[in-house]
Amino acid sequence: MEELGVYMVGYDRAGYGESDPNPYRSLRREALDVEELADALELGPKFFVIGFSLGGHSVWASLKYMPERLAGAALLAPVINYRWPGFPRNLSTEAYNSQPVGDQWTFRVTYYAPWLLNWWMNQPWLPSSSVVKGTASLPNKLDARLHVEMKSSEIVKEMKRLATQQGVHESLHRDMMVMFGKWEFDPMDLPPPNIPVHLWQGDEDGLVPVTVQRYICHRLMWIDYHELPSTGHFLTMVPGFGDTVLKTLLG
């Protein structure tokens, strides 16, 4: 960061930490929040955006609703919506069916009955998200080790408590409702934004099937796709990965 002169901002999105909850969250509002924050901090007419995992929908929204404000964008193992129309039916069905049954049910409830999600997620006898429950299958060795370490880490537990202090529904559940609900646009219909856009994906990601990321980047030829061999979902924990992202975007 010092070498490249980077000024980096991380913020709590609506409902997380001490940020005000927003019961009307949407993809457009996510992009407007980014733009409003950038203007309040006087970041200038253009800035870069980076989104990891579930936060990837904020980057897609920024590319859709304010491409003129972006100097570049990076998507790190971004979670996908299996119901994006641009996916071939056989590909999305295969990827969807590869997920645990509880996750499949969570996707269905979030898409068809989002008003039911909070109740559903709080019923221990119903099949629900393995990620939220902490039971997700992680085939990558580093992911599996980090998962065990994080479950027992007091620091991580405190970070989760602070992140969800306004309730899991106002933070994580509303994130899921935006990510897995009915989108206002299909990312695969986005026109070239005339800025550098990079997507990094591990080929052993147990949470986001690599097959769907390959297809997205095949459709959107303006995305520079970086597939990391023998790598899982927790890209930000791979030694040197942060440096790679910054140097690729700014170097």
From TrEMBL:
<protein>
    <recommendedName>
        <fullName>AB hydrolase-1 domain-containing protein</fullName>
    </recommendedName>
</protein>
<dbReference type="InterPro" id="IPR000073">
    <property type="entry name" value="AB_hydrolase_1"/>
</dbReference>
<dbReference type="InterPro" id="IPR029058">
    <property type="entry name" value="AB_hydrolase_fold"/>
</dbReference>
<dbReference type="Pfam" id="PF12697">
    <property type="entry name" value="Abhydrolase_6"/>
</dbReference>
<feature type="domain" description="AB hydrolase-1">
    <location>
        <begin position="10"/>
        <end position="236"/>
    </location>
</feature>
